Amino acid sequence: MVAVPSQAVRSCLTESKKYIGDVPVVLAAKGIETGSLMTMDEVVHDVLGAAWENRTLAMSGPSFAKEIIQGMPTAVVMACKDEALATRIADILFSDTFRAYTSTDIVGVEVGGALKNVMAIAAGGVIGMGWGHNVRASLVTRGLSEITRIAVAKGANPLTLSGLAGVGDLMLTCTGGLSRNRAVGQALGEGKTLEQAQESIKQVAEGVITAKSAYLLIEKLGVDCPIIETVYRVLYEGVPIDKAVQGLVERPTGQELQYD
User: Fold this and answer.
1) I need a surface site. Which of 30, 182, 243, 253 has the fewest CB within 10 A?
2) Domains of the chain
């Protein structure tokens, strides 16, 4: 099981490659690698070889580590191209408090797990600005639409994003009090600098790095994702958060669901 920060997955696997036998790799890391713009399963294949395409699993869903450790009931999805392997690993991990469903759509699960962190920064931003529940709910919903468009552009099933790796993880990360990414966004909304916001949580907020990778990815794929673009501009171009969010509100409307 690989549960390190996303940008450390490649180096971790490279250093431990000679010790890894022909065994499944379960990814708890969520993100998009800077530079290559690969999802974590693609990094595994790149480092360990094509043989791991059918024995790499992505585990994702609404699952704060602290609550799992405390024995609170948690449900996740285990995605692998080999459905039988996903079922076997899910059965191994099953307990009275941990439930794993299965999927063969590893692309959708990986994209959902990575990009919800970027949306959580945006959601935290409007909380910090003191805007109400309406705008937060709208932002999260439109964020799900952007995540789905990216996933579909990479070959995923859009229905995957209506499950635990999509709606489930997004809801938790955008609203939960333990969310590091939401906390960073809230601090930015309250007027803190990015440096001050990161210092205040004293942990890794994957969404900060993923925002840049996601922005480069949507440019590469040619997918319109205004929320991701806005978060990127706030974090990396110094655009004031109030001005950036107001720009989102003032965008022309269009068809709600459009994934082609």
Assistant:
1) 253
2) 6-106 (3.40.50.720), 107-250 (1.10.1040.10)
